[in-house]
Specification:
- It is globular and about 40 Å long.
- The strands form two sheets. A four-stranded antiparallel beta sheet has the order 3-4-6-5. A two-stranded antiparallel sheet has the order 1-2.
- It is α+β, with helices and mostly antiparallel strands.
- The longest helix is centred in the first third of the chain and has 20 residues.
- A hairpin with a 2-residue loop joins strand 1 and strand 2.
- The N and C termini lie far apart (93 Å).
Length: 272
């Protein structure tokens, strides 16, 4: 009896092994694709990506403007050039004050009128910062270098050494509609959210009427090489500001229209 039971169990085991070893039938060529297969194909199919232009290290060329140029002196104080390629060294300005912030006295009235008119039009506006003295800039530059152990080029992307920051001229103002940024001297200050604000739209439409221009358009970076802040506006005088706005010129381009040799740009590489 025991032998029969053992033989029966052995036969059942062999039959199970044979069943498992039989390959599954191949899917028919006419069998429709399952929903899972279709979904997988949709996920792996990629949309064509736009081809981005390569970053060029070539020096930008002076734009061709056929309209008469404004009758201005590019060597006047309004056109003082400070950027990563053109250092002014240990620079000081004619120090004035507006709403508790240092500013070049010669632009105080224009800046005060701009802010008053913006507020009258219903906008909130503050100066985040304007004039920064040489000692402050030097301290921040050295602190950035030693704390981060960066080389000078990397440090220059994060902090501007004395001589290459427009804030040292007292002619540049970082505007903001955020009270938390008012009169701030926070190192590395930037307010990218201002790009989407109603204040920024108003400034872009009206700032030239007060002699200011938006200083750092991203597409103009090869001209100035300076790390940019979104809220940064620069005084150049009403006539020049309107001409620059109308012809989509940055300050370096404008100066180059009068004297191409007045703006230095390195042949290879840039900080921007």
């Amino acid at each position: 009896m025991k032998k029969r039971i053992l033989a029966g169990l052995l036969a059942a085991l062999l039959m199970a092994v044979c069943v498992l070893a039989i390959p599954a039938p191949a899917a028919s060529a006419e069998e429709p694709e399952t929903e899972e297969t279709v979904v997988e194909e949709q996920e792996t199919e990629e949309a064509p990506q736009p081809t981005l232009p390569p970053v060029s290290a070539e020096k930008p060329t002076v734009p061709v403007i056929t309209d008469p140029l404004p009758d201005v002196d590019i060597h006047s104080w309004e056109f003082m050039l400070c950027n990563s390629y053109n250092s002014r060294g240990w620079l000081t300005c004619q120090r004035g004050n507006l709403e508790g912030i240092g500013i070049d006295e010669r632009i105080r009235e224009a800046a005060a009128t701009l802010m008053a008119d913006a507020r009258a039009a219903g906008y909130t506006i503050f100066m985040a910062r304007a004039y920064l003295n040489t000692e402050w800039l030097e301290n921040m530059y050295l602190t950035t270098f030693w704390v981060s152990r960066d080389d000078p080029i990397v440090t220059a992307r994060k902090a501007q050494a004395p001589g290459v920051s427009e804030h040292q001229t007292g002619l540049a103002i970082d505007f903001t509609d955020n009270f938390g940024y008012a009169a701030t001297y926070e190192f590395g200050f930037d307010d990218p959210e201002i790009f989407d604000s109603e204040l920024f739209a108003w400034l872009m439409e009206h700032c030239a009427d007060y002699g200011f221009v938006f200083r750092y358009p991203a597409e103009k970076a090869p001209w100035y090489g300076t790390p940019c802040t979104h809220a940064h506006f620069r005084y150049v005088g009403v006539e020049a500001a309107k001409f620059m706005t109308e012809h989509d010129l940055c300050l370096e381009e404008f100066i180059s229209l009068y004297d191409p040799d007045a703006v230095y740009i390195p042949d290879n590489g840039r900080l921007a």
